[in-house]
Amino acid sequence: MPASKTSNRPEELTERLGAGVASVDAGSETLLKVLREVKNQIIGNKTKKLTYLHLGAVPKVVSILVSALDSGDGSTAASLVVQSAAALGSFACGVDAGVQAVLDAGAVTHLTRLLSSPDEKVVDAGARSLRMIFQSKLSPKYDYLQENNMKFLLLLLNSENENVTDLAASIITHSCESSTEQKILCDAGVLERLVTLLEGSLCQRDSSLDSIAAIIRNNSESVSRFVGIDNGKALSCIVELMKDRYPRTRLLACVCLIVIGHASSFYVQEPEIKTKLILILTELLEESGRPGDEAPFALVSLIANKEDLHKQALSVNVVEKLCSFLCQAHIDGKRLQGVLLVLAELCSNLEKCRDQFMSSKVLNVVADALKHDCPNVRIAACTCLTSISRSVKDLLQNLFAGYLAKESIVIPLVLLLQDSSSDVQVAALKAICNIVVDFMARKTIFLQSGCVKQLVQLSKSMDCTLRLNAVWALRNMMFHADKIGKEGILSELTESMLASLICDSEPHVQEQALALVRNLVDGCTDSIERMFVEDGMILNAVARQVRLTSVPEVCIQGMFVLGNVAAGNDAHKEAVMTYFLPPKKDEISSAFITRFLQSTDSLLQTAVIWCIVNLTYPDSPSSSARVSRLRDAGIIAQLKNMINNPCLDVKYRVRTALGQCTIIEQNSS
Amino acid sequence: MPVRVVESSAPSPAPGQDANPGHALPPACTLLGVGQTFAGTQNVSSSQKDEAWKVNVRIQGFDPAHGYLCGIMEALNVPYAETPVVTFWEGEIIDSKNYTFYTGKWEATPDDDVKHWSQFSSFSPLLSQVKADGGKSLDLSNYPYIFMNSDQLYFPLQRWKEQYFVNVSVDCGLTIAGFYYVCFSCIDGSINGFYYDPNSSPFQKLELKSTNEGRSGFSFSSYQLQ
Questions:
Q1: Which InterPro entries would you find in this protein's record (chain B) (predicted)?
Q2: Looking at the 3D structure of chain B, how many domains does it have?
């Protein structure tokens, strides 16, 4: 006999879910079929999940769960509970909107009721579903500080049911952040129980490793407690798991060991273990899923800012391996980001790493990553370029070889200066900062690509990090620029903009702006003339900032500006002299040179003395008059007191200055 | 500075160096800072004739933590060369931490090292100790005027090795196989050095002075890497 065809369209299924709530008892078999169908459709299918979410399926599933729980102990009711719990778990898996919908529908409370069911299948379903929910960052933190919550957690952790202990471990991993929470869990004996679970099933082992890492992270007391368990057997167990046949277990064991090493350098200090960690994490890159995605991030956390480990990584060919991995077929965003960050870290210090990187011809991959859809990959690519371009040798050699060519690197980097993410903009600025140093004075590529225009725009940003890095890049670009380069930069920047950056509210910006001016006036006297346009707007700003600031770094850059101006002609020297010793009695002005010479910062002292050396340079016509004025102001006497300064640079610059003064005075007498 | 190839001596492979030319730390001697320039001569006299080539040097990178510095060397009146020949060099500062007196490469024996270092008067007090163990047991604090130890330096001793030609090709008929033993004076920024290449004339003297490039005083520029 022909029957009416049942539709499996999400709209109709969702409608039937809603209709079924009222008839859990009457039409439970049909409802069960609908639930199963929905669950099967959404497992692993993000699009379907989103469709059902938009149709409002989640609250309806929660209602079915509640009705079934309240309706009694019948086998169909139990099946409905299991299927609805599984559907909710699936909604919460891997889709933020799904987790949010499940949380909004109040599912956690009802799913928790399942854990006390006498029916093992119901308990399993509840535990699995809750674990999915607690794996998401969106789910609320579990409050261990409440006694009842802690008791409940221990109950879960000590359960014989594998899914329940797994849930307990997930809750710990999700919610253990502060040292207070770590201590409470330690005091409750959680670490000991987790160590026992390391001998359990694969799932238990992995979730235990995750939880152990959460409890001991950045906490040397927890680490000591962990290492003390069974006289170090727990630690040995993790060292063994580092070699486990399952990639995920290897990754988690490595992460645990890294966390232990970070919290207390006493443990995991043998170079052999560190080399093994480096090798295992590098090999894990080849694995699919979480192990491969997270391995590079674990590797970065292991080697960050540790030159000895960079050397170890280099010795086991990690740079080579990562570069060849990058050259393989398409790599997914997260893994690509991770690998680029590892390379950036390794190339941040060691020239040998940079050499290997450059010879591996992976710069094209990095150039492509600058255009990647994911902002984090773009940031990682910029960070990698920043590290590579820390090499003076490579900057010179590769600029010549054309690797850092306009089309492949400079233009994409300049485009990133307009990225919608300010983090990407900052990362691009840092890379540009290094690349523009360009020792061969060929700054035209940056002028032609619109780079200077963008940098000037960003130096007006309200965001002080953007402003700082933009001015920093302009400062480096001005370093040893030729006349055309300097003119090009200054015509975009303008004197008034430069004067306002010197007086910026942020001392770091002031320092970079002054260093920019220092580079501008280094070189031919034409450059120095730029300081005197618009009634000496820039020079006035420099002198004002130097007089008023209390930040040594700002004073140092300001004094080097004045010193470079004083290396010009007689008129330039006289101009600096007016700031040194103003004609009108001005206590602040006349005091600042004396104050700087008394500074405890030897570089500031040196900068002031170089300025005096230039003011008293023997070849200049008015040097004799300037020496007299400096003597009258007590500066020469102050220099004499510094003749045995403990800083040799100060000591010998003082001797140069005094030697020049003596020659000038002898010649004029 | 490159010298004319007289025999089939191939340039030695560029040694890898662990260096970070970041410039967070200021140089202990401002005259040895990035951007500083020096000018002078290298005596390339042989038994046949007296000859000296004009040389300019500019410091491009300086990283005291790794005992590293680098820069550009320009040889001006190289015979048969159409333009000044520019090379990139890397320097090792003898600090007994990153680098010792013994070169151990570039075909220099310990005996060659001692012979060359002995040309500098600042080395004399260390001679016996270096002969005994290469200077490994030297107490650096007793010799602040030589070692780049903290910010106390006076006559830092260095080795400069040219790594590649910047503006001419490798087959230009010149060689940079050798390297320089260098003594820098922080008092006046003068540089004395001796070029060593077993295939070239011995003890070719390099003499450089800090230059002002036409200015009436000393000027200092700077960059800072991220």
A1: GID4/10-like
A2: 1
